[in-house]
Amino acid sequence: MEDLRYFWDTDSNLESPINVLVKLVRPLTVPKLLWYNVKVKPYKTKITNNGYSVFVTSKWGRTMPFISDGPLAEKKFLFYNMHFHWSDTNAKGSEHKINHEIFPFEMHVLWRNEAYKTARKAKREYDGIVIMAYLFEVSPNENQLLEPIVDCLEEVKKGVSSTYMKDSASVSELIRLFEDDYFLYRGCVKDSKMTHQVTWMVSKQIQQIGTKQVAGCQIQTPAEDKRISDSSQFERDH
Q1: For the CA atoms of the chain, what is the radius of gyration?
Q2: In sequence order, what are the residues at sequence separation of 6 or more whose Cβ sits closer than 8 angstroms to the Cβ of residue 168?
Q3: pTM
Q4: What confidence tens digit (pLDDT) does each residue in 133-145 have?
Q5: Superkingdom of this entry's organism (predicted)?
Q6: What pLDDT sits at residue 220?
Q7: How far apart are CA 39 and CA 168, in angstroms?
Q8: I need a surface site. Which of 16, 155, 178, 238 has the fewest CB within 10 A?
Q9: Is the dihedral of CA 198, 204, 206, 207 positive or negative?
Q10: Residues 18-43: pLDDT tens digits?
């Protein structure tokens, strides 16, 4: 566990997302990552086109989903939001690369450290935010986990707008849960105001997204009449 203590105690100035070169990855033995309350449905789930990306935010009562253990040790990280990165072609769109390979679609799931009462405060701390990254390749078959979100996108296609899921989905109904088999690294995300330290978990398992689902994700910005891509999860989130 000495490597893990060093991981958390060392500040990172590495700009992220990154190109993961698998041959340079160092194995790290840690306990399994644990997920809690991920089957609890929120009472409200909002889908927002903010002009740069699509964000998924949810409201729970007292029982919020969180992750802990694994490399997080005793720290608890509460679900914050989800958002997506893609381009107007199926050839590129992801922010992370694996051995220089770019993927058509990438999903980020943000979690904030429970020790900090708001996401704004968490973003200022070295251990405040964990981002899970999922990479997708296009498939003839639709991804059932994405369907609840894709079904709502038609209502937010024409500019900055929001809608609500008719039947809110739990975290486990929207993303693939993993306990291990991921790339772990610390990096920085910059916006116009400051640099934020982030802990990244990049799932090694490449996900599938259906051709029709990719087409359904082509949302236009109100100002430039072009498909969304290259959003910043820190400067432009809500």
Answers
A1: 17
A2: 41, 42, 43, 44, 45, 58
A3: 0.90
A4: 999 999 999 999 9
A5: Eukaryota
A6: 62
A7: 11
A8: 238
A9: negative
A10: 999 999 999 988 999 999 999 999 99
pLDDT at 235: 40
Query: Which tokens sit at 221?
Result: 């910005």
Q: Please return the burial class of 93, using the count of CB atoms within 10 Å of its CB with bins 0-12, 13-18 and 19+.
A: buried
- Residue 117 DSSP code: S
User: Which neighbouring-strand residues pair with 163?
Assistant: 47
The first and second tokens of residue 167, run together, are 């039947």
Q: Which two tokens stand for residue 2?
A: 């000495």
DSSP 7-52: HHHS----BSS-EE-GGGPPP---PPEEEESTTPPPSEEEEEE-SS
Q: How far apart are CA 33 and CA 4, in angstroms?
A: 14
At residue 230, the pLDDT reads 41
Give the span between the Cα atoms of 129 and 149, in whole angstroms. 23
Mean pLDDT, the chain cut into blocks of 10 residues (238 residues total): 65 84 92 97 95 92 96 95 83 90 95 95 93 95 94 88 96 97 92 86 96 80 44 41
Whose tokens are 């996900």? That residue is: 207
- Two tokens, residue 192: 């116009």
* Element of type H or E holding 210: strand 207-210
How many whole angstroms separate alpha carbon 17 and alpha carbon 202? 10
Sign of CA dihedral 134, 112, 153, 39: positive
